[in-house]
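Study this protein:
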Amino acid sequence: MEKEILAYHETMETHEVLNLKTVCLLKSKLMQGLCFDNDLKVLMEKNVQQSIAAINELKEFYKGARTNYIE
């Protein structure tokens, strides 16, 4: 099977979404330590797990990213 290569705009968009999910993960993980409401902690932990899954999925797409410009 051939390796799929992302277009330049797809590479950029994948990078942006990966950055967003990483920031969401960090924020939820840090806020868990400051939160005293158990229900809210459960929701934040669910967000952490979903963010980890999304990041792992995006990393697979990123393998086909274009990292240099060749005409």
